[in-house]
Amino acid sequence: MILLISSIIAITLKAGTSLVFATIGEIFTEKSGILNLGIEGIMLMSAVIAFTVSYYTGNLSAAILSAMLTGGVLSLIHAFLSITMQAQQVVSGLSITLFGTGMASFLGQTLGPETNSGYLTGLSAARLQTLTIPGLSRLPLIGPVFNQDPLTYIVLLLIPVSWFFMYKTKHGLNLRAVGENPQTADAMGINVPRIRYLYTIVGGMLAGIGGAHLSLSYTPGWTDNITGGRGWIVIALVIFSLWNPSRAIWGALLFGGINAVQFRLQASGADISSTLLNMLPYLVTIAVLVIITVWEDRKRTTGSPAALGTPYQREEK
Amino acid sequence: MTAVTKGAGNTAPELILEMRGITKSFPGVTANDKVDLELFRGEVLALLGENGAGKSSLMNVLIGLYRPDAGQIFLNGKKVHIHSPKDSMELGIGMVHQNFKLVDTMTVVENVILGEKDLKLIPNMKKAAERIRSISDHYNLKVNPDKYIGQLSVGEQQRVEILKLIYRGAEILILDEPTAVLTPQESDELCNIISQMTSEGKSAIFITHKMEEVIKFSDWVRVLKKGKLVAVKKTSDTDPSDLAKMMVGREVLFNIEKMPFTPGENVLKIIKLNASDPNGIKVLDNISVTVRKHEILGIAGVAGNGQVELTEAVTGLRTSQSGEVLINGENLTNRSPIEMIRSGVSHIPSDRVAMGIVGDMSVASNLAMKGYRNKPIVSRGILRTSLILAFARRMISAFNISTPGPQTHVKFLSGGNIQKTILAREIDACGDLLVAAYPSRGLDVGATEAVRKEIVRQRDEGRAVLLVSEDLEELISISDRIAVMYGGRIIGIVDSEGCDIEKIGLMMAGIENHQQERGSRT
Question: Which residue among A158, A173, A309, B221 is least enclosed by CB atoms within 10 Å?
Answer without folding.
Answer: A309
